Amino acid sequence: MKGFPKTLKTKDDYYNCLAMVAAGELAAADLLAKIESLEKQRYIQCAIVSVAEEKKAVTVYYCDEAAPGMVFVAGGISGTVTAVTHTQTDEAAAAGETGNDRTVLTLSKGIAADNTAIGLEKAAAVAGMTADDITALKGVLKQYE
């Protein structure tokens, strides 16, 4: 990644890199990797323990940040979290633990039973860019691949 800036902290930094790609000074794949990494920073990744039969509820390891109204992404499906319940498993209770160790998320859309993780959106914007800004940047970048 020769010529790549050490840090990318603002929207302008990413657009400057796009100009470098357009000028042939930077590989499009390198910038795309950075953009995808940035995109992942918008989400809290939670490991799925189980998916309910109707596939509109999932149990994850305890996630204090989970709240109704959050946007979720799981296996290409996105929607909103409609309810959150923190629970304690029988195993944790038997071990003498006093706190909750699982979080049950009720979702607006069903997800596939084989999903292993769900992303909960924690920020609408990162580095000053919204999801639409990131999508637009990736769209422009495609012409240089």
What's this entry about, in short?
The chain has 145 residues and is of the alpha+beta class. The protein has helices at 11-22, 28-40, 90-94, 131-142, and strands at 43-51, 57-61, 71-74, 77-87, 102-107, 117-121, 125-126, 129-130.
Q: Briefly note the structural class of the backbone.
A: alpha+beta
The CATH class of the largest domain is Mainly Beta
Q: What is the third-level CATH name, the topology of the largest domain?
A: Elongation Factor Tu (Ef-tu), domain 3
The level of helicity is: 25-40%
Rg over alpha carbons: 19 Å
Shape: elongated
At CATH's second level, what is the architecture of the largest domain?
A: Beta Barrel
List SSEs in N-to-C order.
Answer: HHEEEEHEEEEH
Q: Bin the strand percentage.
A: 25-35%
Read across the widest sheet, the strand sequence of neighbours is 1-2-5-4-3-6
Folded structure, characterized:
With 145 residues, the protein is an alpha+beta fold. The chain has helices at residues 11-22, 28-40, 90-94, 131-142, and strands at 43-51, 57-61, 71-74, 77-87, 102-107, 117-121, 125-126, 129-130.
Topology summary:
Elements: H1 11-22, H2 28-40, E1 43-51, E2 57-61, E3 71-74, E4 77-87, H3 90-94, E5 102-107, E6 117-121, E7 125-126, E8 129-130, H4 131-142
Antiparallel strand pairs: 1-2, 1-6, 2-5, 3-4, 3-6, 4-5, 7-8
Helix pairs in contact: 2-4
